[in-house]
Amino acid sequence: MKSPWKAIVPMEPDQEYLVMASSIPPLRRSSTYRLFRGASAVRAQLGRTEGVVGFSLLARPWRKEYATLSVWVDAAALDAFVATLPHRDLMVDLAPDMGATRFVRWTIPGTAGRPTWSEALSRLATG
C-alpha cells in the first residue's frame, strides 16, 4: 500500500530539490504496530515541517517492507527534520526492532515533478 503523495508546497521549475528515499525493514511482523503508530506521528510532523515539499509512505506488512519517499528544499531542512521530535525519538525507540535501514539521496530539478516510487525502489535496491 502506497500512501497518496502529500504535496506541502508546489515545486518551482527553476529550483533544484533533494529527494530522499528510505527502506525501514522491521525484524518481525510484531513490530508493525509500533512502526505504524510512529509513522502516524511522523506524518503529522512532516505536515508542519519547514522545508518539506512533499512525501509518500509505502507499507507492505506481510513482506515486512516499509519505505519513505520525500522531497526537500535542501539537505539542511531534511537534517533538521530528522533531529526533531517525534522523528528523533522514533528512530531510537524502533532501532532494536529494525533490520538494516537504507537511505538514498539524489537531486532533481523542479521541472521533473515529484519522483516515482519505481525510481525510489530501484535506487534503494542498488544504492
Describe the structure.
The protein has 127 residues and is an alpha+beta fold. It has one domain (6-126): Alpha-Beta Plaits (2-Layer Sandwich). 33% of the residues lie in helices and 28% in strands. The chain has four helices and five strands; from the N terminus they run E-E-H-E-E-H-H-E-H. It has helices at 32-47, 75-82, 87-94, 117-126; strands at residues 6-7, 16-23, 52-60, 65-72, 102-109. A five-stranded antiparallel beta sheet has the order 1-3-4-2-5, with helices on both faces. The protein is globular. The mean pLDDT is 92.
Could you give a quick summary of the protein structure above?
The chain is α+β, with helices and mostly antiparallel strands. It has 4 helices and 5 strands, in the order ββαββααβα. The chain has one domain: Alpha-Beta Plaits (2-Layer Sandwich), CATH 3.30.70.
